[in-house]
Amino acid sequence: MPVASTSSTNQKHSHVDILILGAGPTGLGAARKLTKQNNQNWLMIDAADRAGGMAVTERDEKGFLWDMGGHVIHSHFDAFNDAINSHNDWVYPQRGGWVRVENAWCPTPIQRHLGNLKKGEQICQEINEIQSKGVSMADQEAKNLGEYFSSTFGPTLNDIFFTPFNSKQWAWPLDKLNHTWTSLRAGSKAANVPKPKSVVTSSDQPDDISNFPYPRLGTGDLWQSVARALPADKQRYNTYVTSIDLDEHTVTLDNGETVSYGHCISSLPLSVSIELVNAAKPNAAIPISLKPLLKHSSTTVVGLGFDGPLPKELEGKTWVFGADADVSFHRCTILTNFSPSLSEGENGSGSRWSVMFETASSEHRQIDIRPDVLAKKHLAELRRWGAVKEDQEPISTWSRHLQLGYPIPFLERDEVLLSDDNSSGIIQRFEKFGFVQRGRFGGWRYESSNQDYAFVQGYEAVDLIQTGAQESIYWPGRADKVTLPAAPKSKSIQSPTTPSEVASAAGTQCLLPNANETNGHGNQEHYKQNGGSLVHAQ
Ligand SMILES: Cc1cc2nc3c(=O)[nH]c(=O)nc-3n(C[C@H](O)[C@H](O)[C@H](O)COP(=O)(O)OP(=O)(O)OC[C@H]3O[C@@H](n4cnc5c(N)ncnc54)[C@H](O)[C@@H]3O)c2cc1C
Prior knowledge:
The structure is a single chain. The longest helix is centred in the N-terminal third of the chain and has 26 residues, at 145-170. Helix content is 28%, strand content 19%. The chain contains 16 helices and 21 strands. It folds into 3 domains: 4-59 and 80-88 and 219-291 and 410-536, FAD/NAD(P)-binding domain, CATH 3.50.50.60; 111-183, no CATH class; 296-407, Protoporphyrinogen oxidase, mitochondrial, domain 2 (Polyamine Oxidase, Chain A, domain 2), CATH 3.90.660.20. The protein has helices at residues 25-36, 78-84, 120-132, 145-170, 180-183, 219-228, 270-280, 335-338, 341-344, 371-384, 413-417, 426-431, 440-443, 451-467, 499-505, 524-529; strands at residues 4-6, 13-21, 42-45, 57-59, 65-67, 90-91, 97-101, 104-107, 214-215, 235-236, 241-245, 250-253, 258-266, 296-307, 319-322, 331-334, 352-361, 396-407, 435-437, 495-496, 535-536. The two termini are 43 Å apart. 50% of the residues are buried. Helix 1 (25-36) packs across helix 14 and helix 3 (120-132) runs antiparallel to helix 4. Strands 1, 2, 3, 10, 11, 12, 13, 19 and 20 form a 9-stranded mixed beta sheet that branches. An 8-stranded mixed beta sheet has the order 8-7-15-16-17-14-18-21, with helices on both faces. Strands 4-5 form a two-stranded antiparallel sheet. It is an alpha+beta fold. The chain binds flavin-adenine dinucleotide. Flavin-adenine dinucleotide binds at residues 22-27, 45-48, 53-55, 68-74, 240-241, 267-268, 272, 299, 358, 402, 405, 439-442, 449-451, 454, 530, 532, 534. InterPro entries: Amino_oxidase (IPR002937), FAD/NAD-bd_sf (IPR036188). Residues 26-397 form the Amine oxidase domain. One of its GO terms (molecular function) is oxidoreductase activity. Pfam families: Amino_oxidase (PF01593). This is FAD/NAD(P)-binding domain-containing protein.
């Protein structure tokens, strides 16, 4: 039996060897690895009503489908490729990244299309000067992201694009951010920020117009397929973790049930896990005072759906990066160009189109993020582009506020997560208890937490637990060796049952996610009360 339960008291208790918290890409990666091994004793728990985490897709009342922000699948790993092959409904849109700058269009990357900019000659001169000094991007010794941009691209391009755009995207002062993510991306050969071209050439198309795979019905549909390939009775949704007792290797759920574990792989946001540890025992081994050290931004996603054919101004565009400081969003995704099915509605209703805008905010960027206010601004911008007529209104306006939008790569981040003494970093503190925190906010490393990276983080965490194999993806070149404690002896077991029996006895649901439902998270109010507020409707 995979999970055992005791019911000698009113409270249900069960035990698993590996407990997976969170059924986003990270949790699903761990679950996939364990499923391949057969007969492993594990359970995956998530507060949402389905798998996918932040990579879910919602259908609104008018039938438009919305991801939680534009999601592009990059694939660098065999284990990830193998998993996504369980999905068979793909489209292959062509990349089309554009920058909206100085009230005009510039193909991406902007630093390689200087001829498209009014001050292209001047920018080119500045870049030539920088490059003639023999300073290459690789050996820049910039102390922070702001310095990195100005010393790589020169003052003019920095003023026109890099500073205003990145200040909006990160919602954090650039002199407080590190820049290692710009040139690094584990597993990928391409740098995140390509080198500038020191000649003034213009172009009417972006450098990269390759095709990319996208699930026809949205990102969430892919993860539903991945979850369906896992044993249904080891997945529990609509189930909130309300406290974590690290000493006892036990979590408590919102129905009062407890689950003990040998080891835990958690993709719950690190800040949430710290709260839940302190909910179990105040003054716990991981003090609540560590939580504010973790910096994040929030993202407000607003989708606008329209009747009629896609305007010609948006043809060939998949992303528009809003550079100008007076434009609130940083990225607009033309969803219809990802997959026409996102806009068509359930019955394939005629010609419609949809776009989605992301706006970041934080304690450093306190802007009005009420969805109706943002929607008006975005509509005005579409009108400025000539894509929407003055008398045309959207037939659907959808929005979600992601309280945790981006894990910020703040300057002190690495020391906060991993300390030189090998024990006082937040990640290390959890690991000492056999509790492995990984994933986008679970591990708090922006540069290794896209869907494919997150998935492989979960996958590798299983190896770490089972064999001690050091991971390659969460933290490439991590200095300390991760040694997890052995699993404690499990509690005495009285009446073995399956997880679904445990769940139904306790009044919770054990759901195999349904491919036809795309409504995202469940009881968000409860979610918030329990410190797990990742996303809520505004
Ligand atoms: C705006 C935006 C744009 C993005 N764009 C891209 C992109 O283009 N390409 C790409 O590859 N990736 C993109 N991503 C990242 C992608 O969404 C993440 O890689 C992925 O979701 C991270 O997976 P995860 O499993 O680590 O975390 P999550 O997906 O956040 O999963 C964590 C899970 O924990 C659950 N949880 C939290 N608290 C509790 C609790 N108390 N009890 C039980 N369960 C709980 C949540 O419900 C959630 O399902 C984007 C993300 C955002 C926000």
